[in-house]
Amino acid sequence: MAGRSVTLRALSILDAFDVRHRRLNLTEIARRSNLPLATAHRHVQELVDWHALERRADGTYQIGTRLWHLGLLSAMHVELREAALPYLQDLCAVTGDTVHLAVRDGFKALYVERLGGVRSVRVVSRPGGTLPLHATAVGKALLAWAPADEQRAALSRLERLTPYTVVDPTRLAAQLAEIRRTEVAWTREEMTLGAASVAVGVTGAAGSVVAAVGLVIPSHRTNVGSGLPALRAAASAISAHLRSRRSAGAA
Amino acid sequence: MAGRSVTLRALSILDAFDVRHRRLNLTEIARRSNLPLATAHRHVQELVDWHALERRADGTYQIGTRLWHLGLLSAMHVELREAALPYLQDLCAVTGDTVHLAVRDGFKALYVERLGGVRSVRVVSRPGGTLPLHATAVGKALLAWAPADEQRAALSRLERLTPYTVVDPTRLAAQLAEIRRTEVAWTREEMTLGAASVAVGVTGAAGSVVAAVGLVIPSHRTNVGSGLPALRAAASAISAHLRSRRSAGAA
DNA sequence: TTTGCGCCTTCCATCTTCCGGAAGCCCTTC
DNA sequence: GAAGGGCTTCCGGAAGATGGAAGGCGCAAA
């Protein structure tokens, strides 16, 4: 394959895997990574030897323990998720709702963590997954404090997801201004029918908004704002935690 | 470097990172992965381009978002952690203690998840980290149901960690038998002074013990067994969940 | 039993690509 | 202004990657 270095070829094999393709056989890997079968075979072998991939009894491959292990060393995980987790859990325990922690990844909200007891609302998000910025509360919060040019770009590509999704750029811009003023973002059935959400921003060591924490609640509930004080408290506790660490070392 | 394929060299760069070396500069990476600086430089460049690594403002490198993302596709994460998480959270909320989910990784207990509110006991474990099998409750539970030969091997290498660590193979073997009988594992200050722990096994789709769930509690607490019913309930709920899925697809 | 098929594995002659010492750059420190 | 640490670039020689082809294996249909 022209222009791809050896390493890139090996990495493109890993790229063949995603949420909807967690298990692939060799032929599928070769096809999805655009490599001849023999070449894919050789690379896959090496990746398996290194435990980047695992081979299952049925012959399919999946991401291995070693990569999971490595991924836990990423800044996103260690510096954000681990710092936030205790507060998120308390928030979850206090409110009983599904709790989200997300960061902005281009025009998407990337879900870093999702907590929710056995009885919480079922939601579409999953850790490592993404959802649109404009239709979720965490997304709106992240967008409200995003750089102006990125905000403008996001406003020009509003996709309708439910009858209640805000797809008018002017209206969303007004909402974002309101979010900056009140420091709370809301949605109501804009992503999923039956679900409402609230979110507030988390500020990092530098004082800018680096993440958002949100609650998802059934939209029929009347006291939608009841979790807000706890949410604000959690977000500012996480912000304080991030501020106090700056550049800490290992665990 | 003799005998290492290109891919393996690139992977050995990733291997330079671990819990105590989350951020490395180029020189350190080259040294730790045993590669000439120029070679390391080339590989690191490619890994950064692919977002396997990230370069920070101060010039150091760390594991990037892409690997974190990929790791979340591993079976360990999707099939075990995600299935167990809601139950673990409930368990954490009910007991107020630190909750652990671990699997056996050779002679170590590999911590897949750790939950604990802001007020829980500080513990030495971390997700993705390992602790000895013989000095932790989850470890003992995993060891109790391990294959006989591995169990024997583990018994021959008991390291003392506190004055209370059980290092006599005969005594530990008796404890393991007791654990299989009662289906509960205990420790008391065997890993960390001041901490006790309880754990029970989780059975997978095939009916064998694949993981263990445990609680860590301050050892001065008198009602050490008070969390046991909730712990048992959580473990059997997770086991049931795993049994009912067998080979489910995506989220 | 034979044939066909899908999938995996191995082989090896060819040639693309990687290797890494050396030299140069850019800071900071003395 | 010289020394030193760390990073980046270069390029000829050497090494290792490539991938078409052929063979193996298990299964199902004829």
From TrEMBL, chains A, B:
Record flagged with keyword DNA-binding: yes
SMART domains the UniProt entry points to: HTH_ICLR (SM00346)
Ranges annotated as spanning the membrane: none
Positions of the HTH iclR-type domain: 4-65
Domain IclR-ED: 66-244
GO molecular function, one term: DNA-binding transcription factor activity
GO terms (BP aspect): negative regulation of DNA-templated transcription
PROSITE patterns: HTH_ICLR, ICLR_ED
Highest taxon of the lineage: Bacteria
Keyword line: DNA-binding, Transcription, Transcription regulation
Protein's recorded name: IclR family transcriptional regulator
